[in-house]
Write a structure and sequence with these properties.
Elements (H helix, E strand, L loop, with lengths): L6 H16 L4 E6 L2 E6 L7 H11 L4 H16 L17 E4 L4 E4 L15 E2 L4 E7 L2 E6 L4 E6 L6 E2 L4 E7 L1
Antiparallel strand pairs: 1-2, 3-10, 4-6, 4-9, 5-8, 6-7, 8-10
Helix pairs in contact: 1-2, 1-3
Length: 173
C-alpha cells in the first residue's frame, strides 16, 4: 500500500528541485532502504509548471521519498547562496590544481573565526588537510593530493562548489 505525500513534503521536494536546478545538477539519486528517489533534469530549463507537475506525480510515492527530499532540501538550504569564482588564467605552466572530489560548500578553516588551513605561500604535504567541504550536513576533509607551495585559493569561504571544480593552485615541490 502506497502512502500519499503530505503537503509539507511536497513543498520540501519542490525546494530540493529548485536548489538542484539553481546549481546546475542534472541528476540526483537517493537510496535509503525501502525508498529510492531519482531526479533527472533536461538541459533546457523547465518553468514552475514542470515542478508542480512532478510534485503531483510524486503524491502517490512512498512516504520515505518525502523524508529523503526533506532532509536533502535542508542540506541544500544550509549551503546558502552560490557565488561564482572563475579561476584565474594559469600563467605558470606546471601548476597543479587541487579539485573538489564532491559537490558541497567550501570552508577554508576548521571553524568560523579560526585561522585557515592553508594560504598562498604555505607549503603543503601530500595528504595534509587543506579545506573542508560540507555535503549533506557532513564535513569532509579535503587533503592535498600533491606536495608543494600553495599559489592561490580559487574559491571563497562558504561558496557552493561543484564536483571537479578547482579549489587551489599548487606549485609542486
Amino acid at each position: 500500500m502506497k502512502e500519499r505525500m503530505k503537503q509539507q513534503d511536497i513543498e520540501d521536494l519542490r525546494q530540493l528541485i529548485e536548489f538542484l536546478k539553481l546549481h546546475g545538477v542534472s541528476e540526483f539519486d537517493v537510496d535509503r532502504g525501502d525508498m529510492k528517489l531519482r531526479l533527472k533534469f533536461n538541459p533546457v530549463e523547465s518553468g514552475p509548471a514542470g515542478l508542480s507537475d512532478l510534485a503531483r506525480l510524486l503524491q502517490s510515492a512512498p512516504q520515505g521519498v518525502a523524508q529523503a527530499a526533506a532532509a536533502s532540501a535542508q542540506a541544500g538550504a544550509a549551503s546558502g547562496a552560490a557565488g561564482t569564482a572563475e579561476p584565474a588564467a594559469n600563467a605558470d605552466a606546471g601548476l597543479h590544481m587541487v579539485k573538489s572530489p564532491i559537490v558541497g560548500t567550501f570552508y577554508g578553516s576548521p571553524s568560523p573565526g579560526a585561522a585557515p588551513f592553508v594560504g598562498p605561500g604555505d607549503h603543503v604535504e601530500k595528504g595534509q588537510v587543506i579545506a573542508i567541504i560540507e555535503a549533506m550536513k557532513l564535513m569532509n576533509e579535503i587533503e592535498a593530493d600533491v606536495s608543494g607551495e600553495v599559489v592561490k585559493c580559487l574559491v571563497a569561504n562558504g561558496q557552493a562548489i561543484e564536483f571537479g571544480q578547482p579549489l587551489f593552485s599548487v606549485r609542486p615541490a
